[in-house]
Every structure is written in C-alpha cells, then in structure tokens.
Design brief:
The complex is a heterodimer of chains A (287) and B (550). Chain A is elongated. By secondary structure, chain A is an all-alpha fold. Chain A has one domain (84-286): MetI-like fold (Orthogonal Bundle), CATH 1.10.3720. Chain A has helices at residues 2-10, 12-19, 21-43, 75-111, 113-127, 131-142, 146-173, 176-183, 188-224, 236-244, 250-278, 280-286. Chain A starts with a helix and ends with a helix. In chain A, helix 3 (21-43) packs across helix 4, helix 4 (75-111) runs antiparallel to helix 5 (113-127) and helix 9 runs antiparallel to helix 11 (250-278). With 550 residues, chain B is an alpha+beta fold. In chain B, strands 8-9-10-1-11-18-12-17 form an 8-stranded mixed beta sheet. The two termini of chain B are 41 Å apart. Residues 17-50 of chain B have low confidence and may be disordered. Chain B has 18 helices and 22 strands. The relative contact order of chain B is 0.14. Classes of the chains: A mainly alpha (287), B alpha+beta (550). At the A-B interface, loops of A face helix 10, helix 14 and strand 16 of B.
Chain lengths: 287, 550
C-alpha cells in the first residue's frame, strides 16, 4: 500500500496527469473513444446501415437517442460505428506519414549535401499543394476511396515530419558520442540506427500526438466533400455533410460534428500535455 | 442627429408625393382601372390605371447569361424574355398542352406538313412604336439561326422563311417536325424590332455569329412587342421591367416587375415573410413545410418536367448489368414508394421517359404496385445471376430540386441488396460524372434529365440509337422496333396518332429498356396570398403576363 502510494507520487506520468488538467481531460476523452472503437458492435443499438424510411428524420427520442437521418438510419449507431473509420483513418495517416517522414528526413539530414537539398525541396513541393485540391485531383483521377484519401493526406503530411526529423538529426550527429562511435569503427548504418534515431525521435513523437487531432479534422473535411470511403459507410464528415443540407433537422449534423470535435480536442489536449511533459524548458517559458 | 434624419425623411416623402401627383395629373384620369387594351391606347401609354404603380417583386436564384432572344436558352431567361417579346404562338399560365395564338392571328399547315403559313395580327407595335411586320419575324428568326447560339438547334427543321405582304409569314420545312409549333414558343422565334436592333449592331446575315455585336445592348434593353420592356438590369442584383406603352394586347395587371437575384433560399423566404417580395421561387422542401400555415403566405406545389432515372449500361464489357433480364429485375426490385418519400410532395413515377403533363404522356404509375421482389429474383435467376453480382453505381454529388442524389443512391443500393445485387457507390463531382455519362462508360448511373422543350419529341433522345440511348450503349440494332416507333413519332404531325405512338413507346420502354425511371420531381414556391395566376410553367417557369394581385 505504502509502496503504491510512493509510486504514484514519484511516477512522473501520474504527476503530469495530476498537475495538468487538460492532459487528464484529453486522456479521459481518448480512453472513452478507444473503448467505443473496440466495442462499437456491442454498443450500437441498431445496425448502422439499416434503413427504415417510415422513421426518416426522427428527432432524438428514447428509441433513437441521436435521432435518425434522411434514410431512417439510427444516428447514434452510425456515430459509434463511424469512430472506427474516422479515428482509424486519422491514426493511420499520422503513423504512415510520421514513419515515412522520419526515415526520409533522417537519412537526408544524416547524408547531407546535394541529396539533402533535393529531398527537402521535393518535400516543400509536396507540402505547398493545398491538401483539399490535391485530394480532389487524386480522387477524380483514381476514384474516391478511403485508400486514395489516406494516400493524399500522407503525401501532403510527411514533409512536416521530415523537416523536424532532419533538424534533429543534424543537431545530434555533431554530438561527441556519435564521433566516438565513428572512431570505434561503427558503420554508418549502425550509427544511424543505434545512435542517431533514438536520440532524435522524441520531438517527432510529440508532433505526432499534436497532429493526430488535425488529421482527424482533415479526414472529416475530405469526407465532407465526398472524398472518403463511398456511401453508405458511416463516416463522420460525410454525415455532417448530409445534415448540412437540411438545417431544419439539426440532429443529423450535430452529433457526428460533436464526435469530431471531442476526438480532435482530446487528441490535441494529449498532444499539448505530452509536449509539456517531454519538454520542461518549453513549459517554463509558456508559464 | 435624430431630428436631422426626420427632416430628411420628411423632405423625401414630400418629393415622392409630388412626383406621384404629377404622374396622376398627366393622365386622362386616375382610377380608371379597366385594364383593357383600349384604355391603354387612349391614355397614350401613360401608367395611370391606378393611384400608384402596381409593382411585382420576385426573388429567384437565376441562371441567365443574356437577354438576347437569339442567344438565350436558360431556364430563368424566359421570365424576362417571354414578358418582353411576343412569339407567334404561346402557352398561357401553367399550361403546356394547348398552344394559343400570340402575335399570330391564325395559321395553316399544308397537307404534307412541310409548309406553315401564319397570319400576323395587324396593328401590333414594338416598344419603340414601330409596327410589327412579317419581315421583322423573318429577320429575327434568321438572325437566331445564323447566330449559331444555344437555341439555334430549335430551327434545325426549317428550310427557308418567306414573307407575303406585311402580315403573312411562310415557313418551308426540310422535313415534317411534329414539335415545330411548340418550338415556336421560344424567344428565338420572337419578333425583334429590326430597326432598333440594327442600330445597335444586330445582324441577321450568314455571318451573324461573328458580325452581330448587339448582345451587350440586348442584355440591358429589349426591342420586343410584348407587354413589358426591360428598363434596367444590374447583373447579380435585379432586372426591372416596365410596361411597353405601345402594347396592343390585353394589358397585364402589373405596371412594373422587378426580378431580384437572391441566391440564398432562406433569405428568399424571409423577404417574402417580411412582405418585401411577392414571390420566392427557390424554396426548400423543409422550408415550404414549415410555412404551410403561415399567415399571408401561400405555399404552392407543382410538378416539373425534370426527372431522375437509373442508366444501366448495355455493353457486355460491363458484365451482368448489360443483361436485359437484369434491367427488368432492377425495375421490379426498387421500392418506389420509399424513393418518393425522399423528395418533395407531389413527386411521381413517370411511365417511360415521358413526363406526366406533356401531350401523349401516360398518367404516372402507382408506386405501391411497382415493386415485386419475387419476380425480380426470378428474372435475375433466369438471367443466370441467381447469386447476384457486384456493380458500380456512379452518382454526381448534386441536389436536384431538394433531393440529395447520394441519398437516393444509398436507397437504391439497399433495395438492390435484397435481390443480391451488391451496388458500390462512386460519388463524383458532377462534371466528372457528366464525363463518364457522355462517354458511355458508366456501368450504372444515377442521372437527371430536363426536357429541351415541353414536348415529348425532345424525350425521344432516350430511344435506342439516339443521344441518351447511346450513352447506355443501347444501339439501334438492340431494339429496331422501338427505333422505328421513334422515327414515326418524330414525323407524325397528326396529334392523336402521335400520342398513340408515344403511349406505345412508353409502355414498351417500361418493359424493355436500360432506363429505370425513378421520379418526376415536384417543386415548391411561395407567394404572398394576394397574388393570383402564379402558376408554375414547364415552359416559362412563370408566365408573368398572367400574374395579378387582389
């Protein structure tokens, strides 16, 4: 008992949670959504694709807590089932572009020279495209699908990570322990994997958590434009888009909208919290 | 500050009152609201029918690009053009079945249907005071043909135009054209004041497409013999029309008509509620429902000629969907009652590609009787696809008269799932979907169609080998019988016989065609309750000549 208490007191993670209310809120929100993602099938009261036109556009009531949409589908069930698609897409996008950006930026910063210049200019080229227009171009060229939308998001997103990673690598590679390792005859590969990567990865991880919320928002806005997975998939952005056309039935757009809001808010709180936690210097300057 | 404002208001008021007083005293007498043609002539064109100017204000979300009668072919342009220009024949009010004479007094058609002779009413005048002659008609129509603009195709069947004296106009046709008289209601066939137009750069020569420079002038002015003339046009804001002082027909009720551009539907509704506007044309289904009991406002429901349909590709490279039995199965599998519940009140299911309300169209089908899942499954099994198959459905992301197309697509998807057809929806930007439709590469498409002119002749495009038919890769050889019937309908001028042919085509196409008609859309609009004669017209949108107030 005593041990546990001291553990709670000394463990820095719990300290961070205690001192940072926003981080706590973020963790709670994301924990709830994680639960929903795992148990969506059991939580949803109805089949999210089941149409019943006799019940179309019912306002929230006891049978349908969030009301029904224009095809009589239960919105609560659709919001719950949609968490898998929407949160999953945000997560995939962030992880894929973080890994790609880390490798490209890391190698580019490590090798340096013309190679570095060329890679970074290509990255800038990609990130200068307006995401939504690029997504529309890709969607019209290859047809709208979940895969294409994710691809677009990753194409636009990886340069952010590459840039951060490159800066870190350039900083780390001039450290003495890297020098020492080279003197000991370690190969470039080994130095990169064993010395440089572990020491420069932390800032990318912070960026990932902060970006996760933005990725969900971007995915929602792309699916709002009809560029996500094809109907009838219960995708939050598409559901908001459907409801935006019928303002008289406020519940159609409101509930998926609230879901987007809560997830991206929760993810941003966690991102900020982790940044503060990992970077006490920054925290001091902010406070 | 407040005082000064009051003073200014008072000054303004007195000026307006003075002006109004002048208007009255200039006329032959106030209060003569007989509103007949004679009183118009006697008064020498003064607007003196009532104490004050009778003004109609409409709010629309327009698509007009020009008010040049030789070039305009947009839906909303007719609101203005039909008010300012007299055609030989016209439709009245919301009716599109019975043609009535307008500038023409009478007409004769030759036995072989290749010559039309029109007698023009003498004594009609343009808004400039010039007299309307057959020569003006000939010149105007030739100008429309040579401009090669959007409406020029309407005159494709004309071989030559001839005049005989001042009031006789003769059309010689290339071939019999059963829709010709309906086409004559378009403003391309209206009389334009040749003298005025030519002063402003108009030309009717063979090279009119490049030589004619009058478009800009026509955008801000009119030179017709209709009851109104354009007094001002501010693009993106409003068009104001005032009486044509020289108009000789029955004078319309209103002295002045303002058509305001209000793109937002809820602002249109609000301004009607506030009393600033008399008619709001673009009203959402749900807005209309919420206004059903509002005081001082009447909600109108009307059937349009626009319909939505499923296109099924007939080319074998698209797999099972090309099978004729599958087409029939899909027709029986859909829940039409459910589909209609997605759209405005008054929406119906047309029989064949012929909208209810056109001459020769059959009455709409009873949606409750159209579905037969057992028969659909049977047909699918006969075709050899008892286990179903998978097909892509291309949908433009548009909203047609308050109906979201993707939602309709999802409904179709769930209906077809019940007979084992797995539909994958591909929602596309409308321009992208249009491209797929034009090239005939959609395995299955959800499309909308608005007739070019209110006559079933324009719907023959759906027959095998014709424009729309070919988009589904439905060649003439696939159904020579229907193609033959189509040709007969095009050239049969005898109305009764022609309508019989249309009925036959409709019934045949309901059995064997790659088009599944889903709905003929209804629309809704609101007016102030004192407005009368505001009937929806599938030709003019609204016939402003017939609108009055109580």
């Amino acid at each position: 008992m005593k041990n546990k208490k001291s553990f709670l007191k000394n463990n820095t993670v719990f300290q961070a949670l205690r001192t940072n209310t926003l981080l706590t809120i973020g963790v709670v929100i994301c924990a709830i959504w994680l639960f929903v993602i795992i148990f969506a099938d059991y939580l949803a009261p109805y089949d999210p694709l089941l149409q019943d036109l006799s019940l179309r556009l019912q306002p929230p009531c006891r049978e349908h807590l969030f009301g029904t949409d224009s095809l009589g589908r239960d919105i609560l069930s659709r919001v719950l089932a949609g968490s898998r698609i929407s949160i999953g897409a945000g997560l995939q996008c962030v992880i894929i572009s973080a890994v790609a950006g880390m490798l490209i930026g890391g190698i580019s910063g490590y090798i340096g020279g013309i190679f570095d210049d060329v890679v970074m200019r290509i990255g800038e080229l990609f990130s200068s495209f307006p995401t939504i227009i690029l997504a529309m171009v890709i969607a019209s060229a290859m047809g709208p699908s979940l895969f294409n939308t994710l691809l677009t998001m990753c194409i636009v997103w990886w340069p952010n990570y590459a840039r951060v990673m490159r800066a870190m690598v350039i900083q780390v590679k001039s450290n003495e322990y890297v020098e020492a390792s080279r003197c000991l005859g370690a190969s470039r590969m080994r130095i990169f994997i064993r010395e440089i990567l572990p020491n420069s990865i932390s800032s990318v991880i912070v960026l990932t958590t902060v970006d996760f919320g933005n990725a969900i928002l971007l995915f929602a806005s792309l699916s709002y434009l009809g560029l996500g997975s094809p109907p009838p998939a219960p995708e939050w952005g598409a559901m908001v888009s459907n409801g935006a056309e019928q303002f008289y039935y406020w519940w159609v757009a409101t509930f998926p909208g609230l879901a987007i809001l809560s997830v991206s808010l929760g993810a941003n709180f966690i991102g900020d919290g982790i940044r503060d936690y990992l970077d006490p210097k920054l925290r001091k300057t902010i406070s | 500050m407040k005082k000064r404002l009051l003073k200014m208001l008072a000054a303004l008021m007195s000026v307006t009152m003075l002006l109004a007083g002048c208007g009255n005293s200039a006329g032959t007498g106030s209060g003569s609201n007989a509103g007949t043609a004679e009183s118009q002539e006697e008064s020498g064109g003064e607007n003196v029918q009532a104490e004050e100017t009778k003004r109609l204000v409409m709010a629309v979300d327009p698509d007009y690009e020009t008010f040049d009668p030789g070039r305009a072919y947009e839906v909303y342009a007719d609101l203005v053009l039909h008010s300012c220009y007299d055609t030989l024949l016209q439709f009245e009010g919301g009716d599109v079945q019975n043609l009535v004479p307008c500038a023409a007094e009478s007409y004769e058609v030759s036995e072989d249907k290749l010559t039309y002779i029109f007698q023009i009413k003498p004594g009609q005048k343009f808004s400039s005071g010039n007299e309307v002659t057959a020569e003006d008609f000939k010149w105007s129509i030739e100008r429309g043909i040579h401009l090669e603009g959007n409406p020029s195709f309407l005159a494709d069947s004309i071989n030559s135009i001839e005049t005989d004296g001042d009031y006789t106009l003769i059309f010689h046709m290339k071939q019999a054209d059963a829709s010709f008289l309906t086409k004559l209601t378009y403003c391309m066939f209206a009389a334009i004041d040749r003298k005025v137009a030519e002063e402003n750069g108009a030309s009717a020569g063979e090279d009119a497409a490049s030589a004619d420079t009058a478009k800009t002038w026509f955008d801000y002015n009119s030179a017709g013999s209709g009851p109104y003339k354009i007094s001002s046009y501010t693009p993106g804001s409003d068009v104001v029309m005032v009486r044509n002082e020289y108009y000789s027909g029955t004078a319309p009720y209103f002295d002045e008509i303002t058509i305001k551009t209000v793109t937002d539907t809820s602002s249109q509704v609000m301004t009607v509620q506030g009393g600033d506007i008399d008619i709001a044309v673009n009203v959402d289904v749900d807005q209309a429902a919420s206004l059903e009991n509002a005081e001082g406002i009447t909600v109108h429901h009307a059937q349009t000629a626009t319909f939505s349909y499923l296109l099924l590709n007939c080319s074998e490279e698209y797999g099972p969907i090309s099978n004729e039995k599958v087409h029939q199965a899909i027709r029986y599998a859909l829940d039409y009652e459910g589909i209609l519940s997605l759209s405005a009140e008054g929406t119906t299911v047309p029989v064949g590609p012929f909208p209810e309300g056109f001459p020769g169209s059959l009455a709409s089908a009873n949606p409750a009787e159209l579905r037969d899942l057992d028969k659909a499954k049977e047909l699918l099994a006969e075709a050899g696809y008892a286990d179903g198959f998978s097909v892509e459905l291309y949908i433009p992301t548009i909203n047609v008269l308050g109906v979201d197309f993707v939602t309709v697509g999802e409904k179709v998807q769930s209906d077809l799932k019940e007979i084992g057809i797995d539909v994958q929806i591909v929602a596309q930007d409308s321009a992208v979907a249009q491209e797929g439709y034009r090239t005939g590469t959609q395995s299955m498409g959800l499309r909308m169609w608005g007739p070019d002119y209110p006559d079933n002749g324009s719907q023959l495009a759906f027959l095998p080998g014709n424009v729309v038919g070919l988009r589904a890769n439905w060649a003439e050889e696939a159904n020579p019988e229907l193609a033959e019937l189509g040709r007969a309908a095009e050239t049969t001028v005898d109305l009764e016989q022609r309508n019989k042919i249309f009925n036959e085509i409709a019934e045949k196409m309901n059995e064997e065609s790659p088009f599944v008609m889903l709905m003929q859309h209804a629309t809704q609009y609101i007016t102030r309750s004192n407005i009368t004669g505001a009937d929806y017209s599938n030709r003019y949108l609204f016939d402003l000549r017939n609108i009055a107030a109580e």
